[in-house]
Structure formats: C-alpha cells, structure tokens
Amino acid sequence: MVQRRGNLFMVSDRVFFVNGFNTYWLMILAADPATRGKVSDVFKQASSIGLTVCRTWAFNDGGWRALQKSPSVYDEEVFKVGTDFIRNHRAFGIDFASAHIYPDSW
User: Fold this and answer.
1) DSSP state of 61
2) Cα distances (Å, whole numbers) of residue 83 to 27, 59, 78, 88, 93
3) pLDDT tens digit sequence for 25-46
4) In a domain, 56, yes or no
5) Coiled-coil stretches, from where to where (predicted)?
6) CATH number of domain containing 95
7) Are 18 and 9 in contact (CB under 8 A)?
8) Residue pair 35/81 in contact by the 8 Å Cβ criterion
9) Is the residue at 9 inside a domain?
10) 3, 41, 90, 95: most buried, per Cβ within 10 A?
11) In whole angstroms, what is the distance from residue 76 CA to residue 99 CA?
C-alpha cells in the first residue's frame, strides 16, 4: 500500500517514484472484445519504458459501453471487465489509480 511520508510516497518503507500515464479510455476499450488487444499493447509499451502507474476513469456514464446506463443502473459485464483487466495486467508491473466522478475523489 502506498503511504505518504512528508513529500515522498512510500511502499514497504521504500521511496516510490510515480512514473505514470493517463488512460481515460481504458474501461471503454477493455469492455469491447474488438479493441481489448489495443489496450494490452499500450500496457506492454508502457511497461517497456518504465511506466509504473496508470490513472484511469472508474466511470463511464451513458452512451456506448457505459458502466452506469442510467441512475442506479449498472452494466455488470463492464464492471467485470474492469476488474479482470486490472488483475490480468498486473503482470506488466503497473499499478492503477482510479478517478471517480465524485467531487471528493482527489
């Protein structure tokens, strides 16, 4: 678990440097079998250049492949794809930080 000590991030009492990238589109493309391979390619490339953290949206409201189709109505398949994707891509050594639509998410 990442913790803060002063102005440093720490993991297991070692300094953790964030080398990251943003993928607002991850949930949408990972939920579609036709584009899922493109997402895997991005993670292979990111890992190969030393990126260690991916920030992604934990929401996709309305529209195509929406996580939340309407208020309080969710697509369980999109939920499943998101959690499966994150679990399966840990092999690349990349951690995930998810951004939520809630006002206090940062």
Assistant:
1) B
2) 10, 13, 9, 9, 16
3) 888 888 888 988 888 899 899 9
4) yes
5) none
6) 3.30.750
7) yes
8) no
9) no
10) 95
11) 19
